[in-house]
Structure formats: structure tokens, C-alpha cells
Amino acid sequence: MQFDLTVLLPYLGVLRDGVILTAQACVLALVGSVVTGALVAIASTSASKPLRRIADVYVDIFRNVPFIVQMFFFYFGLPVLGLYIDAFTTGVVALSIAGGAFTSNVIRSGILAIDPGVIEAAQVFGLHKRTVFLKIVMPIALRTSIRPLGAVLVNLILTSSILSTITLNELTGSAKIVASDTFRPFEVYFVLLVVYAALTWSVSLAIGALHRRLNRDIVEVVS
After folding, report:
1. Domain limits for position 55
2. Structure pTM?
3. Is residue 150 domain-resident?
4. Angle, nearest 10°, between helix axes 12-44 and 49-64?
5. CATH no. for residue 56?
6. Which is nearest to 29 in space by CA: 178, 173, 154?
7. d(CA 110, CA 105)
């Protein structure tokens, strides 16, 4: 077999649209994961035992059930109850909920790692507990959790390939279409491999640079 990437030239637009759709789904899912994870982390660190229990159950369920099962439940199961959601929205919601279970542990660790003296100092100045949490605790927790959150984003990019199973033509779905049209699966999936590697590598580099920038003052103080 002769390796020939030129056969894919007429399909560059299809693959480009798949990359764009993957990027859109992952960005929205990251936002959803961070919001969901923050709420769950707040619940898991609260003084309320019921809230902590609910947070633990949520994390246990969505971390220990295969993502494809969760997604099929939303896409194929909910219509039985009269809830119809399009493939893109289903994918974003499923990724957000599943990602939130992992993000919650990241943010929770960031919250617990904060020096209690910082919180006590803020309270000495008469700041309300809610203000302390929203203005001091959460920003510090998110800043110190940049690298783990970056790992969550990389995982979202990789997991998004499963969205093709619900007829969403993201990157993997688009590649399947091209492979079936050209009968050149080797070239198609070689390009797919390279594109996914480039996406995740670029995200990792960007997250590393953002982490160094946000924590530059901490490094300077320590040094």
C-alpha cells in the first residue's frame, strides 16, 4: 500500500469543521466542569453533613461509571421520559457532569491546601465568610489548581472522541466519514492521531505557561 496524504486534500474542510466542533464542545465542557466542580467542592468542604454526603455520592457515581454509559443514558434514555436533547448539547452536558466529578477533587484539594492563617487574617478585618470564600479562598484554590485543571481539559479532549457514537461529527466523527468515503483508513487515522497529539500537546504547553505566570509571585517570594 502506498502512503498518500494527498487523497485527503478534498476533505480538509470536513476535518477542519470536526476540529472546530471538538474545540467548541471541549471549551464549553471545561466551563461546565469548573462550575460544577466548584459547587461540588464547596459542598464537600461545607459544615453540612448532608451536603458532604451528596457531593461524595455524585463524585463516586460519575467517576466510576464509564463515560459512554453516562452519555448513552442522556442521549437515548432521557427521551423515554420525554426529554429530547440534541447531540451537541448532550455531549457538552455529559462531558461537563463527568468532568465536574474530577474537577471537584482538584478544587477541593486546592481549598484544603490554603493556609488557615490567610482565612483568619481576612476574618480579622471583618470580612463576611461568603466574601472570604468568593474573593480569597476560591481564587487561590483555582490558581494553585491550574495544572490539574489542565489535565482535566486534556482528558476532555480525548474523551470527546466518544461523542461520535451519538452521531456528532466532531473530529473523530468527521474522520470516520472521510475514511468511509476514501477507503483510506490508514492515512485518515494517521492524521487523526497527529491532530489529537498536537491539540493535547498545545494545551499542555499553554497550561504550563499559564501556571508559571499566575504563580510567578509565589516563586519569587520563596526564592
Report:
1. 19-172
2. 0.86
3. yes
4. 150
5. 1.10.3720.10
6. 154
7. 9
Spell 61-87 as b/e; 16+ CB within 10 A means b. ebeeeebeebbbebbeeeeeeeeeeeb
- Per DSSP, the three-state class of 184 is coil
> With contact defined as beta carbons under 8 Å apart, do 7 and 73 qualify?
no
223 located within any domain: no
C-alpha cell at 220: 519569587
Q: What pLDDT digit, counting tens, does each position of 111-165 carry? A: 888 877 777 777 777 777 777 777 888 888 888 888 888 888 899 999 999 999 9
DSSP notation for 28-80: HHHHHHHHHHHHHHHHHTSS-HHHHHHHHHHHHHHHHS-HHHHHHIIIIIGGG
Residue 106 pLDDT exceeds 80: yes
Classify residue 201: in a domain, yes or no: no
Chain centroid to CA 176? 24
Q: Based on the structure, what is the number of domains in the chain?
A: 1
Three-state DSSP class for 145? coil
Answer yes or no: is 221 within a domain.
Answer: no
CA distance 89 to 68: 15
